[in-house]
Amino acid sequence: MASSADRNPPPFPASEEPQPELSDMAEGDSDEGEDIFVSNSHPASVSRGVSQPEEPADLFSEEATTTAKPNGVHSDDDDLFAEAQADLSSDPSSDSTRKDLSSSSGPPSARSPAALQPTSLEQVPPLTKLLRNPQTPAGNHLHRHLRLPVPICHVLFLFKPKCLNCFGFRFCINVALCVAAGRRRGQGYFRCGCCCHQPRESRRWDECICGLQSIHQGVYFKALMFNSGCEVLCSHSPSFPRVLLQTSLPMFKSKAFTARRRFSDFLGLYEKLSAKQSLHGCIIPPPPEKSVVGMTKVKVGMDDPSSVEFVEKRRAALERYLQRIVSHPLLLQDPDVREFLERDDLPRAVNTQALSGAGFLKMITKASDAVSKMTIKMNESDTWFEDKFQEVDMEEQQLRKLHAVVDSLVNHRKELCMNTAVFAKSMAMLGNSEDNTALSRALSQLAEVEDKMEQLHQEQAGSDFFIFAELLADYIRLLGAVRGCFDQRVRAWQRWQEAQSTLQKKREAEAKLLWANKPDKLQQAKEEIAEWEAKVTQYERDFDRIGMTVRKEVLRFEKEKAKDFKSQIIKYLEAMLQSQQRLIKFWEAFLPEAKAIA
Amino acid sequence: MTSIDESDKEKLRSVSVDLNNDTALLIDIPDALCERDKVKFTVHTKTTLTSFQKPDFSVPRQHEDFIWLHDALVETEDYAGLIIPPAPPKPDFESPRDKMHKLGEGESTMTKEEYTKMKQELEAEYLAVFKKTVQVHEVFLQRLSSHPVLSKDRNFQIFLEYDQDLSVRRKNAKEMFGGFFKNMVKSADEVLISGIKEVDDFFEQEKTFLLDYYSKIKDSTAKAEKMTRSHKNIADDYIHISATLNSLCAEDSTPNKKNLEKLSDLFERLRKVEGRVASDQELKLTELLRYYMRDIQAAKDLLYRRARALVDYENSNKALDKARLKSKDIPQAEEHQRQCLQKFDKLSESAKKELTSFKGRRVVAFRKNLIEMAELEIKHAKNNVALLQGCVDLLKNN
């Protein structure tokens, strides 16, 4: 591992040091806290370089006893600092695919070198000490970095570990999109992973307005380093997201690591997974769609809010996509997924481009599939499948309708936002020209209240879109994937039937040969029959297997869906609740002003 | 055919302070019928004045009758020094009627419940427009009745008392055109007259203030209208969302069904609150701005009349000087000049009184409406909070 230190995040000491002090940092969110900061002394079982997948039960027990990620934490810090250094030194305007991490030689000077030495049993100073250590002006590094007018940067994905009832890790992509243009204008935009858009104020991370602090507390330590707002970097090249992963699973080589991935890489992963035979029947989450308009706008470098929104939307969608993949037990085991997450340099996934050879091939196979689906009717022995298919179809239709309505709601709210802003200005002017002083003051106050309302509406529109509308869009795509599974089962059946008919033909041929008495060809025919018999059995087994898988998958999917919907709905309603409470405050502040008019 | 009742009207009387103070002459519109385009108001008068034949009586009136009354008052020379209350605007059912039409066309795309809910919303909107128009007419009459001078006007009494149909002759084409032309001349005149040097500081101030304020308030009214319309659109969207969620969970057999049901229920309740927010904002804010926009126009008209009188006076002075030069017709010229001066002085005096009381009235009305609007917003937001909190708790506990 040490040899790849240049490229990888700095290697971790193999042992997990108990760092109990860290646990008090993550008060609010118990499970996250446990994951990151609770230290237990079971270092040996979790080591790098072990890539055997383990039984879920084992993993659970391991989770409970192993330390989570103090080192992961470290490496994150290091990594980010390394990045920061690299950025300082590299040419800001280049559209490079990879920042040179040769700066591992130049880690933050304040960090004691000892902390980075990969000794297996050495005590690494606890994170809190590092942060509070005056010699570790951790914030200053990045702060200095931030002060530079870097026109280019990269989107940062930070994963954090998750609760114990999952497989041990999941991602929470936290993107800090600092729009460089926005900074030129003097406003930094701070985006947190819950997709609320806050203008940069003197707000600490855990005071996120959206109220979703618990999600961020896992990355609280990072926030401390990034001054107020984690405004590290903005994205002019969103096609190069960094994927940072923290894990306690032994199958991964290191505990926390980052990788940079293009959007086409995500699409490529999906293609690879869909093509795999072994996964037939599994519901593979589809990635977000390509968008020519959005990407062109971003590439051209326009800094309008819609392109920022586009990047944010895509980032959040990619995060959810990856989270769904790794929360699926089968997909997690897949080497392609591991490669995607771990490997430094993925070969460019060219077969995802629309106009490539592979693209055309895809279109042709899709067309032929559609035709075959229409012509061959499956003889369904199990009505469960048919009923489910109908249900899925209906649900998809309804979701589409709902999505359209929610879209219209988002638009109307944006309209309300604009109208309120315009009205506020007009009211301010009216207040100015009013000659009664008390009334004039009241009218100006009213204008201010309306201004604040505009902000509220803006946030609400964001929440409408990023929480509600995107949830629906995701599930529309997922239902499409579910239908794909059913189609796979039908195809398996077709294959089986075809094999059977071929076997039948061969048997007839054999009978004919027997009758015509040609012994040499008979032998060949017998061989072919044996071969086809084997195929028939295998296809039948495949078909049964797929049937079972589909059943299991659909049930799992439904459970996940209910959970997902519930959590997102709660999130959405809580955001609305908060905004209404702020509304009350604003109007209550205005009331005495109105009463004071004489 | 819709009618309203007393208690509702109490709440509606928002824009001007309660005018029915003077018990000598109490007017209200207890009833109104709406057939197609025409609205028939029942004007009910209770009076202790002897100039009326009966102490308590009602007459049916139409919108055109109100306009006739207003025009008659404006044209009366004696009232040149008074702010004539602005005429009530024509009842406008255009918007809800359009929406009803569109709803009918889109009926096939919606479920039954959605359609009925949308229809209910539209009917509520229709009713709101109707109530608003009744209120505006009532306020017009009440302002007249509470004014010391205008309440004694003969035309006003005829309006209140005459049982037969007033059969106000609708303006024929020539008169309409003439009216239009007069308006054009008037605005040209206004421009000329605004250049006149003002002798009185008070009026100079008032003029600049009113002109400026008028343009600003007109702007604000338009923007406020747009804002309330957006609010209504959002409330409508909530209906659609709730209905679609309903149909989603009707066929759902997965564990997700409960979540969707609760959400659909919530949206149904939320949209009622949103609708009320929109309509309250409309009533308190937009109506207030609209009414005072028209009132300021009436005040501007008063200033215009006074300026006109000033111009006349100055012209008469010049005529007198010319007559003196020519030593011809001096007594007529002097008489004319004296008359003009008298008229101007009378106008100025009453205008001053009117304008000061107008100021006071305006401030009071703004205060009342702003307070009420703030209180209503708080109330509705608290409702929303309760609903949302309830739903979140339900979901979490499940």
Structure description:
Chain A: Residues 221-348 form the PX domain. The complex is a heterodimer of chains A (598) and B (398). Chain A has 598 residues and is an all-alpha fold. Among the domains of chain A are: 217-357, PX Domain; 384-597, Arfaptin homology (AH) domain/BAR domain (Substrate Binding Domain Of Dnak, Chain:A, Domain 2), CATH 1.20.1270.60. Helices cover 60% and strands 3% of the residues of chain A. Chain A has helices spanning 30-37, 56-65, 70-89, 113-116, 127-132, 138-147, 180-184, 213-217, 220-225, 263-275, 292-300, 305-326, 329-333, 335-342, 357-375, 383-433, 437-516, 519-595, and strands at residues 189-191, 197-199, 242-246, 256-260. In chain A, strand 1 (189-191) and strand 2 form a beta hairpin. Chain A starts with 29 loop residues before the first helix and ends with a helix. Chain B folds into two domains: 19-170, PX Domain (2-Layer Sandwich); 206-397, Arfaptin homology (AH) domain/BAR domain (Substrate Binding Domain Of Dnak, Chain:A, Domain 2, Up-down Bundle), CATH 1.20.1270. In chain B, 72% of the residues lie in helices and 7% in strands. Chain B contains nine helices and three strands. Chain B has a three-stranded antiparallel β-sheet. The longest helix of chain B has 71 residues, at 256-326. The radius of gyration of chain B is 27 Å and the shape is elongated. Chain B starts with 5 loop residues before the first helix and ends with a helix. The model of chain B is unreliable at 1-16 (pLDDT under 50). The chains are: A mainly alpha (598), B mainly alpha (398). At the A-B interface, helix 16, helix 17 and helix 18 of A face helix 7, helix 8 and helix 9 of B.
Largest sheet of chain B: 3 strands, antiparallel
User: What is the count of helical runs of chain B?
Assistant: 9
- What spatial order of strands do you see in the largest sheet of chain A? 1-2
Share of residues in strands of chain A: under 5%
Which structural category do the helix and sheet elements of chain A fall into? mainly alpha
* N- to C-terminal distance of chain A: 78 Å
CATH architecture of one domain in chain A: Up-down Bundle
Describe the global form of chain A. elongated
Secondary-structure arrangement, i.e. CATH architecture of the largest domain in chain B = Up-down Bundle
Radius of gyration of chain B: 27 Å
Strand residues, percent of chain B? 5-15%
H-E order of chain B: HEEEHHHHHHHH
Let me know the CATH homologous superfamily of one domain in chain A: Arfaptin homology (AH) domain/BAR domain
With strands numbered from the N-terminus, the spatial order across the biggest sheet of chain B is 1-2-3
Task: Give the terminus-to-terminus CA distance of chain B.
Answer: 48 Å
Please identify the top-level CATH class of the largest domain in chain B. Mainly Alpha
CATH topology of the largest domain in chain B: Substrate Binding Domain Of Dnak, Chain:A, Domain 2
